[in-house]
Design brief:
The chain has a domain of 37 residues. It is 7% helix and 46% strand. The chain has one helix and two strands.
Length: 56
C-alpha cells in the first residue's frame, strides 16, 4: 500500500514529529532548559470492532 491508500479496514499512518520541551530554570540546574525531539511514526491502522458494535 502507498501513502493515502485505504484498503477496506486497513490504512497506513505516516507522521512526522517535532516536539520542544522546556523545564523551569530552577530545575535545569545550570544546564540546558529545553530540548528538541524529532522523529517519525510509521504504522498501519487496522479497524477493529468492539462487542455490540455494528459493522455497517
Amino acid at each position: 500500500m502507498k501513502e493515502g491508500d485505504i484498503d477496506a479496514d486497513r490504512a497506513p499512518i505516516h507522521a512526522h514529529v517535532r516536539a520542544e520541551h522546556w523545564v523551569p530554570d530552577d530545575l535545569a540546574d545550570k544546564g540546558a532548559d529545553r530540548w528538541l525531539v524529532v522523529g517519525f511514526h510509521d504504522n498501519e491502522a487496522i479497524r477493529t470492532w468492539t462487542a455490540g458494535a455494528s459493522a455497517a
